[in-house]
Design goal:
By secondary structure, this protein is an alpha+beta fold. The protein has two domains: 231 residues, ATPase, nucleotide binding domain (Nucleotidyltransferase, domain 5, 2-Layer Sandwich), CATH 3.30.420.40; 219 residues, Nucleotidyltransferase, domain 5 (2-Layer Sandwich). Helix content is 37%, strand content 20%. The chain has 17 helices and 25 strands. The strands form eight sheets. A seven-stranded mixed β-sheet has the order 19-20-18-17-23-24-25, with helices on both faces.
Length: 499
């Protein structure tokens, strides 16, 4: 089967065999459109990337007829209005775009925080899809009126182009602000109240359900065989959770991509006052408790550009290697340089779209290498905060955290995270492809390759080789002190952000 993970920075495609083997993996880089605080992306990039990856497979001899199933994961919480031809009516408004703060404030005021929490088991803010749809209604009325559907995930758009079906999965739908998390259905009364046609919302289908087959047009454009089944797929957080082998109560992992999160499987619901989310998992009765970070790999990329002699572009491997080498050569534990990594605002453990990054403790002796290390430490401190939100209180000091995503490729950063967390950090081989493998897991039962998701999670754990980073015990006291200071930075400077 073919599996695609459509993120913000890259589209990753893999072919998967019946023993969960990955081969012919391929990455296509994407561009983000920024206008001030607006963050957008051209959906056609996503579809074009899938076409390019497919073409690369067929070029080396893969036959379209040998690909029996397509499955997807993708960024969530977007607003992607499409017309009758399923082409985008405007650039997609991404998850990290908080333009709809005014609309979310109104929803909070009029619907009430208690009712919102009770129905969605999540908070309401301007980054969610529902407020963004209302923003379109008020600011771009023609786009709102002519839209056939408001899609939510990048993978939803590609599926629509391939099959003609406007669908989404429960994990993705949980990030909209208008799905009843228990019923896994849209809250029709809210949509009607605010003038949103429920028929323009994508159908919520189980992640592992076949939602259509590749049409003649989709086949002609991509090279995949007509009538090949296509699964609904799952939002990136769900795919990463599956790929990490996290399915049982209390299991936890961390993801570092452009943004990041710490998540665990749960049969209950986490308190969302801190900005954490409850996402519907692949099967009913099970949730993903997830604490999202707006700043993770994006802060790393900024630091590489600012403190390395290279370009700092995502694809400039040399710049990243030079930066990491400088960080590794920096002596840690000797100063109090701290960095608040809120370069793009933050949504957990604080919710402040106006927050920004700042250094504390710079001195004439501070080097750019030390500033670079402080950036990586700052993200690690932020991750430690959210790790404490989703980790069971009785987990104790024997906890091991699995780390996946592109950020796990930085050995210097992995060492820092192990030291800051104060526990072992396990980085599976090829962890950047685990969301794609997690999406592929949705099709294993269709192909007759595996049974339930719990046993599949155990299989994934057994398959993956992992590099384990142990914390440096000589730095434990230092990082515990630094962490306590770090937690005091935002409360101290937040009044400046408000101005």
């Amino acid at each position: 089967m073919a599996s695609f993970d459509i993120g913000t920075t890259n589209v990753k495609g893999i072919l998967v065999t019946d023993d969960a083997g990955i081969f012919l993996e391929k990455n296509i880089e994407l561009k983000v459109i920024r206008h001030g605080d607006y963050v957008e992306q051209d959906p056609e990039q996503w579809y074009d990337a899938v076409k390019q990856i497919a073409a690369s497979w067929f070029k080396v001899g893969i036959k379209a007829k040998d690909i029996g199933l397509l499955t997807f994961s993708g960024q969530m919480q977007d607003c992607i209005p499409v017309g009758d031809d399923l082409r985008p009516l405007r650039p997609a408004i991404l998850y990290s775009d908080g333009r709809a703060a005014e609309q979310s404030d109104r929803l909070l005021s009029e619907l009430g925080e208690r009712d919102i929490h009770e129905r969605t088991m999540n908070h309401m803010d301007g980054s969610l899809t529902f407020p963004k749809i209302l923003w379109l209604k008020e600011r771009e009325e023609e786009t709102f009126r002519t839209a056939r559907s408001f899609l939510i995930s990048s993978k939803d758009y590609v599926i629509a182009r391939l099959t003609g079906a406007c669908v989404t999965d429960p994990t993705t739908a949980a990030t909209t602000g208008c799905m009843d998390v228990r019923a896994r259905k849209w809250v029709g009364g809210w949509l009607e109240r605010y003038g949103v046609d429920a028929g323009k919302m994508p159908e919520i289908a189980p992640s592992d359900s076949v939602v259509g087959v590749i049409t003649a047009e989709g086949s002609a454009e991509t090279g995949f065989s007509q009538d090949t089944p296509v699964l609904c797929g799952i939002g990136d957080a769900g795919a990463a959770t599956l790929g990490a082998g996290v399915y049982e109560e209390g299991e936890v992992y961390a993801y570092v991509g452009t943004t990041g999160w710490v998540a665990g499987a749960s049969s209950g619901y986490i308190d969302v006052e801190s900005g954490a989310f409850n996402l519907a998992y692949v099967e009913e009765g099970r949730q993903i408790a997830i604490a999202p970070l707006s700043n993770a790999g994006s802060a790393h990329q900024w630091a590489v550009g600012a403190f390395s002699s290279g370009s700092g572009r995502t694809g400039d491997l040399m710049s990243y290697q030079m930066f990491d080498r400088g960080v590794e050569q920096t002596e840690r534990g000797k100063d109090d340089v701290l960095f608040l990594p809120y370069l793009n605002g933050e949504r957990c453990p604080v919710q402040d779209a106006n927050a920004s990054g700042c250094f504390i403790g710079l001195k004439p002796t501070t080097t750019r290498e030390r500033m670079g290390a402080a950036v990586l430490e700052g993200v690690a401190f932020s991750m430690r905060q959210v790790l404490e939100l989703v980790t069971p209180k009785d987990s104790g000091g024997g906890r091991r955290v699995t780390l996946i995503g592109g950020g796990a490729k930085s050995k210097a950063w992995c060492r820092i995270m192990a030291d800051v967390f104060g526990c072992e950090l396990a980085v599976p081989k090829d962890s950047q492809y685990l969301p794609s493998l997690g999406a592929a897991a949705l099709g294993f039962r269709h192909a007759g390759w595996s049974g339930d998701y719990s046993s599949l999670g155990q299989i994934f754990k057994g398959l993956k080789e992992a590099v384990v980073y142990a914390p440096d015990e000589t730095l434990r006291a230092y990082y515990d002190r630094q962490y306590e200071k770090y937690k005091r930075i935002y409360p101290a400077v937040s009044p400046l952000f408000a101005e």
